[in-house]
Design a protein that fits this description.
This protein has 669 residues and is α/β, with parallel strands linked by helices. The chain is built from 26 helices and 18 strands. A hairpin with a 5-residue loop joins strand 8 (392-399) and strand 9 (405-412).
């Protein structure tokens, strides 16, 4: 049993271990008081079994600050494993391939450390699925297409020859792979090809009911995780664990939620539902393969397909609207259709069970079990839509090229009650980010009396190395179209920076308009989101040290380009959400008069801080964050937004900014 407070010898051991480990870093490491303060706070949290929320600015070294105290206490003091959940693949890879191996090596006998990475089932090749496809008569490409007919990728061009070659290559790779992990592939398969040889948690019947359970890649990964002291997972997988999907994580008492600014959104998705016509068709067509020629069974499948067609049509009429909450005719029609879909899925399950009566273990039996599970999970989600009350919201969302992919989404308006019931009583949690959202404790339902909060700042000298510029002379973007003046401002700043610019936009339309205009006005190369995949685009930007990169919201977070390649971050306007966002609209309704301060402002502050955080990524970086929205300087809430940013020197004088950028540019040439 751990003592209620950390002993002085334990604190001394932590301080010594941190000094020893950081001294082994390249260049001998740096003195980081914030890292030590965070490590000590994490140790206290683990000893006292209290939740901890830590804002640790870029450069703090937060990974070591939470990994080291956990490693020192693993064993009798702290039953393992410790689960570390990250929201981005980049950080997951950093932990698995850099931080944890480094820590294990340099702690040595002081605290032997084992670790593993665990991913969702769909990331591993399913040996049973590969066996079924590889042993089927006919072309594996066509078998795979039939297996996944009607999925969300159906509108993508599909070369059956190339697709068949990929399926065969994946099956052959699975026979020689040690992990079955998609990340270990040396090529990127078509989504349909990978789907043909993998299963999700909502389809898998489990190792004991699967003929290939004894050689399952996903089960082997679970076994490695169960034996490890630290398990690194994706936050989406952790959220699925909290929501009760798949039960793939080992039992644990401690979780670290890194990149905590994304936890609320990811948990909202995991605790919600997503029903599409394509998913209905896929369930029906998969079931058809395991049903006999009985006319009633065929009719059952056709009934589900017909309901899917009607759902697709109706969702098209309700695109972007909140639904299942009023008495409008179309809303009533959708509610009746949802109930009908639930009934027809129940009938489909009955047909699958009848088809399996008396059948022994076989590949067909395994496939039938997956089809049955997929239908059961889908019916459960459909059923929850029927019972939605005031605590949830449903809407129709369009995505994909041309907005053709329509889905019926449902989510809790507030995740705090669910997390307060399902998660926080079960674990001791450390939540950390360079940008902890305003009111994070309240919005995530953390118990205030059992939660400590800390801001350890950043080791970077922001007042010296960075300048925050608000273009207060520009017009309010809500009143008229200031596009021409924004382009003029962009061109002036880019010329002063010698390129080296990351321009972040709140809409695709604004980004494309700016790209076209700026490319005509400057001599520097202007890369744009969509030109290349994200990773390759960022790599190209980092390689070409005078280029510019224009992008939208997905680039506001997770882009790490230290050095002279990036001297200027431009943000076109304050990132307030659209007023017609269905989920946020429901949150605003619940908040009433406090909606702006409790819903819109915290979200905008977090996104703005994340965008601005792309600038200073190392102790030698220098540059400007330019916000081309005068509201940052003129609106009363502007002070709240500025306080969420690093403590940069501030100005509204463009001439001062141009001079500073020219000085920075001269220093990197």
């Amino acid at each position: 049993m751990a003592s209620p407070v950390a002993s002085r010898p334990a604190r001394a051991a932590l301080v010594d271990a941190l000094a020893e480990v950081t001294a082994a870093l390249p260049g001998g490491g740096e003195d980081r008081p914030g890292q030590l303060a965070m490590a000590e706070a994490v140790e206290r949290a683990l000893v006292r079994r209290r939740h901890l929320v830590v804002q640790a600015g870029t450069g703090t070294g937060k990974s070591l600050a939470y990994l080291l105290p956990a490693a020192l206490r693993l064993g009798d003091d702290l039953p393992g494993p410790v689960v570390v959940a990250t929201a981005t693949k980049a950080l997951q890879d950093q932990l698995a391939h850099k931080d944890l191996p480094f820590l294990a090596e340099h702690l040595g006998s002081r605290a032997p450390l084992t670790f593993a990475v665990l991913k969702g089932r769909a990331n591993y090749l399913c040996r049973q699925r590969a066996t079924e496809i590889g042993g089927a008569a006919g072309d594996p490409a066509l078998d795979a297409v039939q297996l996944f007919e009607g999925d969300d990728a159906a509108d993508e061009p599909l070369d059956l020859g190339r697709f068949g070659d990929q399926v065969k290559a994946l099956i052959a790779w699975g026979e020689r792979s040690a992990t079955g992990d998609r990340a270990d592939l040396d090529f990127e398969p078509h989504p349909k090809a990978w789907a043909a040889v993998s299963v999700s948690a909502r389809e898998c019947p489990g190792a004991f009911r699967c003929p290939s359970g004894s050689v399952c890649f996903a089960e082997r990964a679970r076994e490695r995780a169960a034996a490890a002291e630290v398990v690194v997972v994706n936050t989406h997988l952790y959220a699925a664990h909290v929501a009760g999907s798949g039960n793939v994580l080992p039992e644990h008492e401690v979780v670290v939620l890194d990149e905590a600014h994304q936890v609320e959104g990811i948990m909202t998705d995991a605790l919600g539902v997503d029903v599409t016509a394509a998913r209905l068709r896929a369930v029906a067509q998969t079931a058809r393969r395991f049903l006999g020629s009985d006319t009633s069974d065929a009719d059952t499948v056709d009934d589900v397909v017909a309901a899917a067609d009607r759902l697709q049509s109706l969702l098209g009429e309700l695109q972007g609207q909140r639904v299942l909450s009023g008495d409008a005719p179309r809303d009533e029609e959708l509610a009746a259709l949802v109930q009908l879909i639930g009934t027809r899925l129940e009938g489909l399950q009955g047909a699958l069970r009848r088809a399996g009566d008396g059948a022994g273990a076989s590949d067909d039996a395994a496939g039938r079990a997956r089809a049955l599970l997929a239908a059961e999970h889908l019916q459960g989600e459909v059923g929850s839509l029927v019972t939605f009350g005031r605590s949830h919201v449903a809407w129709v969302q369009a995505s994909g090229p041309g907005g053709r992919a329509l889905s019926l989404r449902g989510a809790p308006v507030d995740v705090a009650p669910a997390l307060g019931e399902r998660l926080w009583p079960q674990v001791t949690a450390v939540l950390t980010s360079a940008t902890v959202p305003l009111m994070a404790v309240e919005r995530l339902g953390l118990p205030p009396a059992e939660t400590d909060q800390l801001d350890v700042g950043s080791p970077f000298d922001f007042p010296t190395c960075a300048l925050l510029y608000c273009a207060a002379h520009l017009p309010d973007p809500r009143r008229g179209d200031p596009h021409g003046r924004i382009v003029d401002e962009l061109v002036t700043l880019i010329e002063a920076a010698g390129g080296r610019t990351l321009a972040l936009f709140t809409s695709w339309r604004a980004m494309h308009a700016a790209v076209d205009a700026v490319r005509r006005a400057v001599a520097y190369r202007v890369l744009a989101q969509g030109d290349l995949p994200k990773t390759k685009l960022v790599d190209e930007f980092a390689r070409d040290d005078s280029s510019c990169l224009f992008a939208t919201m997905s680039f506001w977070q997770g882009v790490d380009v230290p050095g002279g390649t990036l001297s200027l971050v431009v943000i076109d306007r304050l990132p307030f959400a659209r007023p017609d966002d269905p989920l946020l609209d429901a949150q605003r309704e619940r908040a009433g008069n406090a909606a702006f301060n409790t819903v819109d402002l915290p979200r905008a502050a977090m996104l703005l801080a994340q965008g601005a955080g792309r600038l200073i990524r190392s102790s030698t970086d220098r540059g400007v964050v330019a916000v081309l929205d005068p509201r940052l300087a003129t609106a009363r809430y502007g002070r709240v937004l500025v306080r969420a940013l690093p403590p940069m020197r501030r100005t509204k004088d463009r001439d001062e900014v141009v001079a500073f950028l020219r000085e920075v540019t001269a220093g990197v040439q």
